[in-house]
Amino acid sequence: MASTNHTTSDLYTLWAPTYDTDGNILQAIDSAQLTTSLLPTLSALLSQRPNTEPLTLLDLGSGTGRTTLLLAAHPWPNPPALTACDSSAAMLAVARAKCPDTVSFALCDPFSPSSSTLPDAAFDGVTSTLVLEHIPLQTYFRTLASLLKPGGLAAVTNMHPDMGAGTQAGFKDEGGVRLKGESFVHGVRESVEAAREAGLERVGDVREVEVDEGMLEGFGEGVRKGARKWVGRRVWFGLVLRKREEREA
């Protein structure tokens, strides 16, 4: 099957019209894990922060707003100020159309020094889901750390290297050509180490998800059809990180 490589931003611009409906098992698992595990953990930890100001949250690489919607719907003890940023205007346009008016949007790429900057310099919490695959480890975690206040928390998810060894983010266009962007296969241990070197400490265990037949029954037919080839393989990992306080750096 022929394939064409694009910049990551261009890939997602082309993918935007079908991104939410192409039956992607990784997106389905990511949303489930965020809802049941990572967001409750993030919420509980952020509620312990000694902060008299409203919490500020950033959805980094928000795409079409899949995670942004989950953040907006989550029962936070106190509703946070939520910002979603992405480098693709087409993906953000989809997100704007379905997210609440309370969400702020920023068209920028914090991983690129030539991109415009975010309106807030640092946030209490950051979510970054299925973004790490596209960025070198050191660049990714240094940027993530720069976007967090001291003591701030981040939920990070990514394609598992067991899956990344055989595929990468992308989709088939109407002509059957597979479109791909820049992609890196990042190991779990090396990701945790790169985060530590950037001043981000792991909170709790890294979660890893392996696909099984029972899991597939909880997804729609569109997801199940393409996911059966991954049964018995780990496809996803996620973790929560805390930025070290300045006095500990």
TrEMBL record:
Q: Which Gene3D superfamilies match?
A: Vaccinia Virus protein VP39
Q: Which SUPFAM superfamilies match?
A: S-adenosyl-L-methionine-dependent methyltransferases
InterPro entries xref list: Methyltransf_11, SAM-dependent_MTases_sf
Q: What's one GO MF term for it?
A: polyprenyldihydroxybenzoate methyltransferase activity
Q: Which Pfam families match?
A: Methyltransf_11 (PF08241)
Domain Methyltransferase type residues, every copy: 58-155
Q: What is this protein called?
A: Methyltransferase type 11 domain-containing protein
* Organism in which the protein naturally occurs: Cladosporium halotolerans
